[in-house]
Design a protein that fits this description.
By secondary structure, this protein is an alpha+beta fold. The protein has one domain: Alpha-Beta Complex (Aspartate Aminotransferase, domain 1), CATH 3.90.1150. It is built from four helices and eight strands; from the N terminus they run ααββββββαββα. The strands form two sheets. It has a six-stranded antiparallel beta sheet with strand order 1-2-5-6-8-7. It has a two-stranded antiparallel sheet with strand order 3-4. It starts with 12 loop residues before the first helix and ends with a helix.
Length: about 140
């Protein structure tokens, strides 16, 4: 089995955010950091070269394999801000604003496109569900 590539690193979150070329993206990242830090009670850390994660826990697969994994995370990708959340929260997503989703990701072009109070509630619900399932 291949080694897991997404691991916590010692890289600087501040340097990673400062290196984002768009000022609005940098500001959005700082807002997401505040929201995710408040929800987890943890400081951000880099996971791999481009994911900012918060908190961590052991995830146990049905096979018995365990890995260290972040509770919530985000990455400023070229096309979107990608938020890695746990669980499905359809009622909150319906109130969020302009976004797309996949199995475990929430894609937002800019925070200005969404209700940040709803985003905060969504992140809090995700952390709560992650902790319930993985502790």
């Amino acid at each position: 089995m291949a080694e897991l590539q997404t691991k916590r690193t010692g890289a600087s979150v501040d340097a990673f955010i400062a290196a984002q070329p768009d000022a609005e993206v940098r500001a959005d990242c700082r807002t997401i950091i505040r929201i995710m830090s408040a929800a987890t009670g943890d400081a951000p850390s880099m996971w791999g070269p481009a994911i900012v994660g918060f908190g961590h826990s052991k995830l146990k697969y049905a096979s018995g394999k365990e890995i260290d994994w972040m509770e919530v995370a985000f990455s400023p990708r070229k096309a979107n801000l990608t938020l890695y959340l746990y669980g499905t929260h359809e009622q909150l997503l319906a109130k969020l604003g302009k976004h797309r989703t996949s199995k475990a990701c929430l894609y937002i072009k800019r925070l200005a496109d969404v209700d940040t109070k709803v985003l905060k509630a969504l992140v809090e619900a995700s952390v709560k569900e992650f902790r319930k399932a993985n502790r």
